[in-house]
Amino acid sequence: MTRLLAVSFLFCLSLPLGGCIVGTAVSVAGDVAEGAVNTTGAVVGAVIPDGDDDKDD
Asked: Any signal peptide, and if so, which residues (predicted)?
């Protein structure tokens, strides 16, 4: 009976921590994706000229 109580207590304590771990993983994944999008935008902007560098006549 004591072992069952201890296991159920540990299980109940792990539930809130599981939410924190999932939230952190989602946050890190979002930051990585945002960095990849920003890098891709910078590379595309460097490769494709937008016409701002034209000389005035």
From this structure: 1-19
Distance, in Å, from the CA atom of 48 to the CA atom of 41, rounded to the nearest integer, reads 10
Supply the DSSP string of 9-53, one letter for each residue: HHHHHHHHHHHHHHHHHHHHHHHHHHHHHHHHHHHHHHHS--STT
Q: What is the dihedral sign for C-alpha 30, 36, 40, 42?
A: positive
Rounded distance, CA 12 to CA 19, Å?
Answer: 12
CA distances (Å), 33 to each of 13, 17, 18, 42, 43, in order? 32, 24, 23, 14, 15
